[in-house]
Amino acid sequence: MQTLLRVCRNVLTARAPAVWTEPQNRDLMVDARMYRDYKRRKMVKEYAFERLQYTAMKRNDILPKALQEVVSQELHAFPLNSCFTRMHNRCVLTSRARSVDVRYRMARMAWRHLADYNKLSGVQRAMW
């Protein structure tokens, strides 16, 4: 729990740029899994348009089968990390991949901890 508090305090007090210009600076990432996911997201963004075109051509029934097979082979030649299904929603504080709320980009445990201590703007634990 102390490490979670330390990570939360560092994230909330440190400046967090919107886009990292230096990918080798790993101080902004919690661990290697978060850095790996960052690299995957960058590659997905790079190849998204081409992948979409090739996928549409592959699924098109009007095109000849020979052309569809060529397109399928070229689609398989793309890097594996350029596929969007290899990305995971990760917590920005702890890099946890499970139970991440998409709106806050935080795991439920980190979210509850910050909500308990009134660190989230406009969020209050349920009371009745």
From TrEMBL:
Gene3D superfamilies: 1.10.287.1480. Signal peptide: none annotated. Keywords: Ribonucleoprotein, Ribosomal protein. GO terms for molecular function: structural constituent of ribosome. One of its GO terms (cellular component) is mitochondrial small ribosomal subunit. It comes from the Eukaryota. InterPro entries: Ribosomal_uS14 (IPR001209). GO terms for biological process: translation. PANTHER family: 30S RIBOSOMAL PROTEIN S14, SMALL RIBOSOMAL SUBUNIT PROTEIN US14M. Belongs to the universal ribosomal protein uS14 family. This is 28S ribosomal protein S14, mitochondrial.
